Amino acid sequence: MSPAPRRGRRAFAATWWGQAWVGALEDSTLDSGRLSRGRTYARQGMVSEVTVSRGVVKAPVQGSRPRPYRTSVRVPTLTGAQWDTLLDAIAARAGHTAALLDGEMPQGLVDDARTAGVPLLPGPTELDPDCSCPDWGYPCKHAAALCYAIAAGIDADPFVLFALRGRTKEQVFAELRRRRTPQAARDGAPPAPAGIHAAAAYAGWYIARPALPEPPRHSANRTPALPAEPPPASGLSADGLHRLAADTAARAARLLAGDTTALYLTQRQDALRMAAAHQDVTWFHGLLTGTGLRPNEFARLVRAWRHGGAAGVTTAEQPHSPDPAFMTAARTTLARTLAEIHGDTAPRLRTWRNRLTVDATGLQLRLGPDARWHPYEEIDGEWWPCGPAHPDPATALTAVWDKRRSPTPQTWDS
């Protein structure tokens, strides 16, 4: 990645899309001092090798201590439906593809995608900085330096933004080629019916569903045999197929009862759901393979699902800005609770968007889209879900606090 420019606040990015990245960073905070230090760090080459992967950019950043800090900035990835919308917008105009091949980001493409609800360029509320340094700023100067340093890379290759949103350059162009030459046209076959979404199909059936017979009763100790063993080179196992069959049966039973939530899960969310239900190393790694996540990130999101379901995963990945009055009331409640526990030595509370962090304790509460407070604990510089969510912030915090004080050993996913 190119070194950061030496002069000027906006000199970190020469293109409009690179400047949009810098603008998102600078609009995300009112702390001009940390931004200024971050620019200085970036110009001085304090940011080491930058790694860009799905939803996150990371780099060691040298600070005042001998050992560099572990610094990252996360960006929400696009859903499968959003990717389909974005790729359709690119394929609709040959000029968009030509510009991308030339290393330029067409502004018309970004505008069309934003109108369709697909934010390719991150907004101020989407950048989520994290750093192992003791500075509680959002962002701290090290994370700000990383954001400025990567701007030059975004300038040179707009596909860095695509990678952050979840797909590589090769994956994007493979999908564009597929859209330009449909399978039906290659085979000379008539196009297949477009079909409808599974949730819509089920909703139509459920309204006028026929009377269904009682499901057959099987012995709890009896496992139905597979009609044939999986092929040796398929990568499938009999145990894995049994688990998938049992999971499918359980989901079908919930559908018959009117619970349609599983129909709206993405492939990644479904993998997290199954991994959370089956605590098995082989099963975990098999599900991990199809998500594109690193093992540590997958484990963190599995724990988020176990404690809070789909809302827990969203809370882990996407910070948001709730009503300030609501956050003030929650902070007041927590401050009162901490005063009751610690008296005059009660730790300080910090608020950032939907997060309340209790200083010097390694504990944090995050307000989720389900209007519940999800507790987190800091482990090796990263925040991990550590307990079930609760509508009352004080209850959520004291439950985690009591678990810490309990003499009973706690497991990683407790």
Ordered list of secondary-structure elements with their pairings:
Blueprint: H1 16-27, H2 32-43, E1 51-53, E2 56-61, E3 69-74, H3 80-92, H4 94-101, H5 107-115, E4 128-131, H6 141-156, H7 159-165, H8 169-180, H9 183-187, H10 198-207, H11 238-256, H12 267-277, H13 281-289, H14 295-317, H15 324-342, E5 349-352, E6 355-358, E7 363-367, E8 373-379, E9 382-385, H16 393-405
Antiparallel strand pairs: 1-2, 2-3, 3-4, 5-6, 6-7, 7-8, 8-9
Provide a quick synopsis of the model.
This protein is of the alpha+beta class. The chain has 16 helices and nine strands. A hairpin with a 4-residue loop joins β6 and β7.
Explain this structure.
This protein is an alpha+beta fold and 414 residues long. Among the domains are: 16-78 and 119-180, no CATH class; 324-405, Metal Transport, Frataxin, Chain A. The chain has 16 helices and nine strands. The strands form two sheets. It has a five-stranded antiparallel beta sheet with strand order 5-6-7-8-9. Strands 1-2-3-4 form a four-stranded antiparallel beta sheet. Strand 8 (373-379) and strand 9 (382-385) form a beta hairpin. The longest helix has 23 residues, at 295-317. The two termini are 41 Å apart.
